[in-house]
Automatic annotation (TrEMBL):
The keyword Signal applies. SUPFAM superfamilies: alpha/beta-Hydrolases (SSF53474). Keywords: Signal. InterPro entries: AB_hydrolase_fold, DUF3089. It comes from Pelagerythrobacter marinus. Pfam families: DUF3089. Residues 1-17 form the signal peptide. This is DUF3089 domain-containing protein.
Length: 384
């Protein structure tokens, strides 16, 4: 846990969260309270073109072409990104919120309408102060953040859903918010949930496969054509598994295990995960990508894919459960042999964070494809 403090301090300075009151509660009937809504120009309408880099170094550009009739919705809650000074963020869509929606949520619009509320999330500033005090999380700040997500969900149901199926998608803090939303969700609302993709957070279930655990009513997905189920995992390099004391991949509850569902195994080939990376890397908390083909400049598109470069499998080792990511670099070809995405602070890789920064990119193409399969199963079960 101390590394959370190190990371936040190193990257985001020493602004104080003390004495800061949260911004007024949002009104989700107002367009301005949403980071993304369908049919408007915002962060989720960004260019998602991908440069595909073959093992021989040849490249081609593939644009994103949304379905003509998107028959279901995606409700996305973003991870901890706010640089605001208080314990809770404001309700302004800053550059950091727009960037993460562009990187994580916009691609899902290929098959679904994307709704992403702004919310007064726990900030990176508050994260730093929590670690200075020895861990935990500020109860009031957490309650404010969850209250917003719950209010946004209710507003979405009232004004936008119209009986459509919806996939819940989150990462890190966003997944934690959705986990709580699902645990308190009334039965009538559960019927609308096509699936929940809670990425980059621990969802704990009894290790022996017995009943109970978190979101006990929702089974883990075991096949692509299954609705009402859970996809969750935390990503680590296969050769750098979660160390002792890791905040990810190790269950806190005695007798529990962390859920790992591999999207690549459900819809494709786990030996060839459909990874889609940000071309230049994921920002200042990780090392940048400098090239995808030896001696060639970076592609001009914001995203790059390298078929066959990444494999992913669910693994269990020394009491940890995680998505083990292997990079299949070949020194004999001109394509890059490794990827970036490890959390780095002070020049040192923080192994207990694993590949948290690229939890979604390592299987992004599989996640997007899976939503369509899951909706088809949801609709078929209802005769739609």
């Amino acid at each position: 846990m101390k590394h959370v403090f190190v990371l936040a301090l190193a990257l985001f300075g020493a602004a104080s969260a003390a004495g800061q009151e949260p911004a007024p509660a949002p009104d989700y009937t107002e367009d301005s309270s949403w980071l993304c809504r369908p049919d408007r120009i915002d962060a989720c309408a960004s260019d998602q073109s991908v440069t595909v880099v073959g093992a021989d170094g040849a490249t081609r550009v593939e644009p994103l072409v949304p379905d003509a009739d998107r028959q279901f919705d995606c409700f996305y809650v973003y991870p901890t990104v706010s640089l605001d000074p208080g314990a809770n963020s404001d309700m302004e869509a800053g550059a950091e919120e727009r960037r993460v929606a562009h990187a994580q949520a916009a691609r899902f619009r290929q098959h679904c309408r994307v709704f992403a509320p702004l919310y007064r999330q726990i900030t990176l500033t508050a994260l730093r102060e929590m670690m200075m005090r020895g861990g935990g999380r500020p109860p009031r700040a957490a309650a404010v953040a969850f209250g917003d997500v719950a209010a946004a969900w209710r507003a979405y149901l009232a004004q936008d859903n119209g009986g459509r199926g919806v996939v819940l998608i989150g990462h890190s803090q966003g997944s934690g918010m959705l986990k709580r939303l699902l645990e308190t969700m009334p039965a009538a609302q559960r019927e609308l949930v096509v699936a929940a993709h809670l990425i980059g957070t621990n969802v704990e279930r009894p290790a022996d496969g017995g009943a109970g655990g978190e979101i006990a009513w929702m089974p883990a997905c075991t096949r692509a054509d299954q609705a009402g189920c859970l996809v969750s995992y935390v990503a680590f390099r296969a050769d750098v598994p979660p160390p002792s004391g890791s905040r990810f991949g190790r269950a806190a509850g005695e007798g529990n295990a962390v859920v790992c569902v591999n999207p690549a195994a459900l819809v494709g080939d786990p030996a060839n995960a459909r990874a889609i990376f940000s071309t230049a890397g994921v920002g200042t908390s990780s090392r940048p990508m400098t090239e995808w083909v030896a001696g060639q400049p970076l592609p001009t598109t914001a995203f790059t894919a390298a078929p066959g470069l990444v494999s992913a499998r669910c693994a269990e080792r020394d009491g940890a459960q995680y998505l083990a990511v292997t990079v299949n670099g070949d020194p004999g070809d001109p394509r890059v042999d490794d990827i970036t995405g490890d959390v780095v602070a002070g020049g040192r890789r923080l192994d207990d964070w694993g590949l948290h920064l690229i939890d979604m990119p390592v299987v992004m193409g599989d996640l997007v494809a899976l939503t369509a399969r899951q909706h088809a199963a949801w609709a078929a079960a209802r005769g739609k």
